[in-house]
Write a structure and sequence with these properties.
407 residues, two-stranded antiparallel sheet, twelve-stranded mixed β-sheet, single chain, alpha+beta, elongated
Length: 407
Amino acid sequence: MAIGAVWTHRFRSLLTILGIVIGITTVVTVASLLTGLREGVVVFFQELGPDNIFLYRTSGDPSQDARIPKEAKRRALKPEYADSLRRWCFSVEDVGIDLMIPAVVDGKPITVRVPGFESDTINVAGVSPNMAEISPRDFESGRFVTQEEDQRAAHVVMLGHSVAEALFPEGNAVGGSLMMDGAEYTVVGVYAKAKGGFFGENGMDNAVNLPLHTAESRYPQVDRFMITAKAKPGMRQAAFEEVEGVMRRIRRLATGVADDFSISTPDQIIEQFDRITGLIGLVAIAISALGLLVGGIGVMNIMLVSVTERTREIGVRKALGARRRDIIGQFLVEAVTLTGAGGTLGIVIAVLITMLVGALVPALPSKVPAWALITGFTVAVAVGVFFGVWPAVKAARLDPVEALRYE
């Protein structure tokens, strides 16, 4: 009977549940996109090493300029710090160094080119040879730079998957040569496609990595050193405290003075990301709540109209022995059917939007979580129950004699 009542006035029903459809679509779509983004971030830092501790002069992306003016005035980290950390941090297994080369050095953008191709969309960094063990990565072909190549500042590079694909589309990158910032380099390795990333993009796919000493000799004016300390198994918290303490002593910071460097772990960075996405989620919930409120009021209104239209039917049912709870149940089921249909339609639209976004923007990960589907449908049904109670009670209170006389 409930389905029949909704279907009889299907256009009116569709307009009534439009707010619910919009609300459920919004919250499920946002939840799907945020879930996909979070999974990408988690996988990204698992690739970097879950036991690693990252040290840099400022907070944020080490490859970018400082976002906070106060942090821009901090002293740069020095590569010598790595030896001190190895010596004094007993919970640390090894310490590696990266030198992040900015996109523009001395007013000139760094480009990489081979005959017929040139690009400046690259992330150049010098890496110490032990980074192969500290942050291990899979190779599509070739190998990591060696200690010997680093010591003699050899002109060799390792390429990210996207860079190698663009420069050497035929796939014979290893052993090939390229020109970067006026110097020739030989490719010794090509990384496999990186997993995870921020908003579907992983900067490591655009990486051009050269030995640390090569980078220092080529760009002596650059001091963007990042230090990565790998904790011994099961000792990351102890290693974190030791690294922070040693760094404060090295940089001669007095007790009570805030750190003049950034120290973080993958878990802490993921927590920061969760706080940001949490705010986005709250905005989505606020928008969907407004839509659900409008939809709920519409459901209450249409159910009150339905009670008025079917007063004679209610009188007949009560005259034949229908109890109050039977009438309440009848109209509650109709309200729940109405909002449940709106919730289902909203979920279907959200899934289609998520699939469309994934198809049009492959770099933007999206995944529809089961909890979002269940929650969306449950909320839609709850709205029907809440806003359908008053019309149902009103219908149940009708006097059967008066209802039968109603025209």
